[in-house]
Amino acid sequence: MTIVSLHNDNPLIDGRQSDRAMMVRRGVQRMLMEMRHAVLPELTLASGRRADLISLSDKGEVWIVEIKTSIEDFRVDRKWPDYRRHSDRLFFATHKDVPLDIFPEDCGLILSDGYGAHIIREAPEHKLPAPTRKAVTFAFARVAAGRLLLAEFSMDARRDGPDISAIVSGRRDEPA
Question: For 142, which of 96, 124, 131, 173 is 20 to 30 Å away at the CA?
Fold first, then answer.
């Protein structure tokens, strides 16, 4: 069973993501997987912010990708500088209809078409302190394991079993 459900109860799609954001996300996920990164969408960080995409490289490097689908989307969101405290590299990802010159030069830049993506500008490296790296890696592993568990449940078992949606969605609060 996959995490994507025909019943539209996927905890990774909570209605806040537009079709364009999902298209960008899909292409970036494919690119990162080709680069041998483990990828998770929608992970809540220790600061309470939720990363659009977070990945772990095969060398243990933590990347966060913030998806922006319009000029307005970028202008109204000023939380992204906080993501530097939780990653070795910070990227923005967008699509062809967004002008690339709006994104800060001190962040990486990825262009996605939904089928794949290309790194337009590499992100500068800012190594995480060891305790932060450990905390982010554990959060990644805990949420990934919870999502894998959910993927193994049948639809009936999910309805009758415990509510693990908080864990699966990456929220830090424990399920009721």
Answer: 124
